[in-house]
Design brief:
mainly alpha
């Protein structure tokens, strides 16, 4: 709220300056939704055909919405929120591209090149599957480094956010183990894969709680759902 004096009357002119929206909540909701959907798919609650439906959500809600929210957060000066939202918005866009285009392209390339060499169809499919999961493992190693950086930075926010990043690290480590430990035919290690799926479901629960807390605490004008700030700055309203 800003107060400006009117020279002709001497009385104050009060103009309400609208409070900027909290972009982090919008993007975090997309991240939570994608984590839950992918976690359910990973543990086998959704079959392979049904799992392809979630790609619409990972592209629009997890990808585009988070990316746009990140730019608004950057404009408001919220560097941590902006970095998180744009980074993981790009992750979900990349995940969608891998599933829709990149992985099928790798399979087609391996099968096409091997067919000219006279290799059997089964051997080519096994090789293609193995190449895809190995590439996914390397892809996630790079994302683990990024996530570890965010985890350290989150220590200045609140306990709920730190827990969410901790669970994200666990999820990525288990996925890396599942993909790099895949069989010769490209089947990920099932124990690690299912563990990653359950970790992702728990992560989604924590992320949804953060969204609920941010929204409810603002609309109810009191801290109904605590986030347990770890620093004095984090305790201030965004």
């Amino acid at each position: 709220m800003s107060v400006t004096a009117r020279p002709e009357t001497g009385s104050p002119l009060v103009s309400a300056s609208p409070r900027p929206g909290h972009a982090l909540v919008i993007g975090a909701a997309g991240f939570a939704w994608c984590s839950l959907a992918l976690g359910l798919s990973t543990v086998g609650a959704i079959n392979a055909a049904g799992s392809s439906v979630i790609l619409a959500g990972t592209f629009f809600y997890g990808g585009l919405v988070q990316l746009v929210a990140g730019f608004f957060a950057l404009a408001s000066g919220a560097t941590f929120a902006a970095a998180f939202l744009t980074t993981y918005g790009a992750f979900w866009l990349g995940y969608t591209a891998i599933q829709v285009y990149v992985a099928p392209h790798i399979v087609a390339s391996v099968v096409g090149s091997g067919a000219h060499a006279g290799a059997s169809a089964l051997a080519l499919q096994a090789q293609a599957g193995h190449d895809v999961v190995q590439a996914l493992g390397v892809f996630l190693i790079a994302w683990l480094v990024v996530t570890l950086i965010f985890t350290v930075a989150s220590l200045g926010t609140n306990a709920a956010t730190v827990l969410a990043f901790g669970l994200l690290n666990v999820t990525i480590v288990l996925l890396i183990a599942a993909y790099l430990g895949a069989s010769s035919v490209g089947a990920p290690a099932s124990a690690a894969l299912h563990g990653a799926g359950w970790a992702e479901i728990v992560l989604a629960g924590v992320a949804f709680y953060i969204v609920l807390a941010e929204l409810a605490n603002e609309t109810l004008h009191r801290a109904v759902f605590p986030l347990f700030p770890l620093s004095r700055a984090a305790a201030q309203p965004a």
